[in-house]
Amino acid sequence: MSKKVEEWTVLSMLEWATDFFENKDIPDPRHSIEWLLAETLEIKRLDLYLKFDRPLSPQELDTLRPMVKRRAQHEPLQYIVGYTDFINAHISVNEQVLIPRIETEQLVEIILDEHQSEEDLSVLDIGTGSGCIPIALKMEQTSWEVSGIDISEGAIHTARNNAEQNDADVSFTKGDILNPNSIIENGPFNIIVSNPPYVKPGEKDILQQQVKDYEPAEALFFGDLEKMYNSIIEFASQKLTENGYLYLELHEKYSQEILAIFDEQNWSARIENDYDKKPRFIIAQQR
Ligand SMILES: C[S@@+](CC[C@H](N)C(=O)[O-])C[C@H]1O[C@@H](n2cnc3c(N)ncnc32)[C@H](O)[C@@H]1O
């Protein structure tokens, strides 16, 4: 960004920063600068295309410059702007919480779809992170009683702020699924949902730099998937209502392994694919 200030326009910034990000191996370089520029100008991304000749003021450049610098170091866009949209919710994010993913939106959509006409359900989300899952559920189904737990204090703090920001009455408490006595939410629940950490530490190198360098390790990695899923199943066996449902997101590579765990525990379970046709979710009930 070394041109003279008055020379910068929307178009020249888009072109320059796209090249700059490309040279730094930033994923989706054009998308990155569009997002940051739209955020700076407080307009929609598409509206940039109607304003190519609009000059950028010195104040706008002062706002944009540190954001471009952070992105050039591979920091995720959502942490830079501080939020992401999740279905119907505006979710603030920071380095204490995983950035909600599109697959997880799909998990919520499956739940909403399958329980559309049911009122007054009780739902618990295990490993709630930003609180995106329970907040989105509560915003769509206001009669449901929805709560979330997480092992991370930082996540609980962020999730509570997000609930308040979205005017969603959801309670969040600290709890460790590997130590069920630490969970104060008693149930019984009609639905338990979880997107637990599911990347094995040995797979760290295949993750994008923006993921492994910025997102919280305890949200991403767990070495012993069998232990994690068995703990969830054990907790759910005690806390689900009769005919209650467990909805889980999983690593596509381990879907059959996880299905076998459910079978061993005498649960009936089915796999659903995500939009990329990868096995991504398990929907299970106790037999
Ligand atoms: C993959 S992230 C999911 C976050 C959020 N639900 C989402 O879908 O965006 C997993 C979450 O589980 C939490 N977690 C990890 N180990 C846990 C444990 N033993 N008990 C409870 N939560 C745990 C992490 O802190 C993290 O917030």
Structure description:
With 287 residues, this protein is of the alpha/beta class. The chain folds into two domains: 5-73, Orthogonal Bundle (Helicase, Ruva Protein, domain 3); 83-286, Rossmann fold. Helices cover 40% and strands 19% of the residues. The strands form two sheets. It has a seven-stranded mixed sheet, with helices on both faces. Strands 1-2 form a two-stranded antiparallel ribbon. β8 (267-273) and β9 (279-286) form a beta hairpin. The protein is elongated, with a radius of gyration of 21 Å. The mean pLDDT is 96. Bound molecules: S-adenosylmethionine. Keywords: Methyltransferase, S-adenosyl-L-methionine, Transferase. Residues 13-82 form the Release factor glutamine methyltransferase N-terminal domain. This is Protein-(Glutamine-N5) methyltransferase, release factor-specific. GO terms for molecular function: nucleic acid binding; protein methyltransferase activity.
Give the SSE map.
Layout: H1 10-23, H2 29-41, H3 58-72, H4 77-81, E1 83-86, E2 89-92, H5 102-114, E3 122-126, H6 132-140, E4 145-150, H7 153-165, E5 170-174, E6 189-194, H8 209-212, H9 217-220, H10 225-239, E7 240-249, H11 255-264, E8 267-273, E9 279-286
Parallel strand pairs: 3-4, 3-6, 4-5, 6-7
Antiparallel strand pairs: 1-2, 7-9, 8-9
Helix pairs in contact: 1-2, 2-3, 5-6, 10-11
